[in-house]
Design goal:
4-stranded antiparallel β-sheet; Alpha-Beta Plaits; Aminopeptidase; 19 strands; 10-stranded mixed β-sheet; 468 residues; 14 helices; alpha/beta
């Protein structure tokens, strides 16, 4: 039996050879596939993910995949939430599968607010514009394209390669397609590892790559409802017991509180890597964060950046308030929403208890505004994960460091990680400093970034599929 190192080396040589021989092959076809996917409206209000899944499924079947290996699964009661699943069968039935995961639903986009039609792919000034061009139809299109290319290449992976393009990631509080697959069609997504969104790259304002992320783990999203009621009365006869005042006092205390710093292997690795990319005194502070108990001065300096602060601690912030029923009446009810992003390993209930302690008002009820999403620890980062990614990345972006990161937002990885499928964010697609309009107006991705990401994912998947 060959060692894991020899298998990896052979796979890397083969991948590099194929890439060199087929540079640019099928690019026009990929662009057309990408255009078709972007131009299918998959918003919750008016879109149809089933239509998008069927279109991508047709592409795979036209490439020669069988009905048994390509399926569109439509949940009962949710006809527009169809998911596409596909498989390339590996040679070793004892090896765990590799899952390629992407969502095909997108955030709402109003034509009157956009400079261009959000559901027409526009190439302009080195960018592709349109809703979903980055989040997350870029990865979805690349995965479908790679499946077609793998068949053309005659790829015979050791591990099964599975693909799941799902719907509902952006509206998970209504219905989540990946959760549906896990609960009803587990065989389509069962794997030893999954590649998902959540880990992209960062470029400077000129588009030069600065760092490439591998995302491992994410914070848990949870909303809490705070509510206080009062008999009210005429506003000309105010009392000290005022629902708005009492709720405001509680929110002020919650807003002022900083949860304790909790470092993990992922966040320690992130700040250690960032210290080599940072200039001046902040570099030393970053380096000092590579500790289970970093010094208070370093924490204070690093925490000035909202993203970095959020990576090192649970955060809770008031986001909505609703109070009173008339301008000339004392308020009978006051409610607020507090949105928390909870670190892996910390619980929703413990966070609620902390909010109760901070509010310090027995008449303010604090409850969960929605059912908690699954919680699980961050998956481990090992050389088996980083070595293939670094090998391919170094050929496309020489000298760009590979950096582990914890997502402060949320992806469908919460479901696969909780189901025991270690899930990593890895796209090879680089964001501009302004965030590329993701979830906002005029979403875009650099054309070169999309094409480089296509090459990266195509090759790195082959390395993972050749492994154990």
């Amino acid at each position: 039996m060959k060692s894991a190192t020899l298998v990896f080396a052979a796979a890397l040589t083969a991948a590099t050879s194929v890439s060199a021989q087929t540079q640019g092959a099928g690019l026009a076809r990929f662009r057309d596939l990408y255009r078709e996917l972007v131009e299918i409206d998959t918003t919750y209000s008016a879109g149809d993910c089933t239509k998008a899944a069927e279109a991508m499924g047709a592409r795979l079947k036209n490439a020669g995949y069988s009905d048994a290996d390509v399926r569109v699964l439509v949940p009962k009661g949710h006809p527009r939430f169809g998911a596409l699943t596909a498989i390339i069968r590996g040679s070793d039935k004892s090896a765990s599968a590799l899952l390629l995961l992407a969502h095909i639903d997108v955030v709402e986009a109003k034509r009157e607010d956009w400079k261009r039609d959000p559901f027409k792919l526009v190439e302009e000034d080195g960018y592709f514009y349109g809703r979903g061009t980055f989040d997350d139809k870029a990865m979805a299109a690349v995965f479908v394209d790679s499946f077609i290319r793998y068949r053309e290449e005659g790829l015979k992976p050791r591990r099964d390669i599975k693909m799941a393009l799902t719907c509902g990631e952006e509206t998970g509080e209504i219905f989540d397609g990946l959760q549906y697959l896990i609960e009803n069609h587990r065989e389509t997504v069962q794997a030893g590892m999954a590649i998902n969104e959540g880990g992209s790259g960062r470029s400077d304002e000129n588009g030069k790559p600065v760092l490439l992320e591998i995302q491992a783990g994410e914070k848990v999203y949870q909303d809490y409802k705070l509510e206080i009621t009062n008999p009210g009365g005429h506003s000309s006869r105010p009392t000290k017991d005022n629902a708005i005042v009492r709720l405001s006092q509680a929110l002020t205390k919650i807003g002022a509180y900083e949860f304790p710093v909790t470092m993990s292997s992922v966040t320690r690795g992130y700040f250690a890597a960032m210290s080599t990319l940072t200039q001046g005194p902040l570099a030393a502070d970053m380096k000092a964060m590579d500790s289970d108990h970093p010094p208070a001065t370093a924490v204070a300096n690093v925490a000035r950046d909202p993203l970095w602060n959020s990576m090192m601690r649970t955060t809770c912030v008031p986001t909505m308030v609703n109070a009173g029923h008339a301008q000339n009446a004392l308020p009978q009810r006051a409610t607020a929403n507090v949105n928390c992003r909870i670190l892996p390993g910390q619980t929703v209930e413990a966070t609620r208890q902390k909010l109760i302690e901070l509010a310090a008002d027995k008449d303010i009820a604090i409850t969960l505004d929605a059912k908690p999403t699954p919680q699980s620890p961050a998956p481990p980062i090992s050389s088996a994960l980083t070595e293939p990614a670094r090998a391919i990345a170094s050929k496309i972006w020489p000298g760009v460091p590979l950096v582990p990161t914890l997502s402060t937002g949320a992806t469908d990885g919460i479901y696969t990680n909780a189901a025991g499928i270690p899930t990593y964010g890895m796209s090879g697609m680089f964001r501009d400093p302004d965030g590329n309009g993701i979830h906002g107006l005029n979403e875009r991705i650099r054309v070169k970034s999309l094409y480089d990401g296509r090459d990266f994912l195509h090759e790195v998947v082959k390395l993972y599929a050749a492994g154990g």
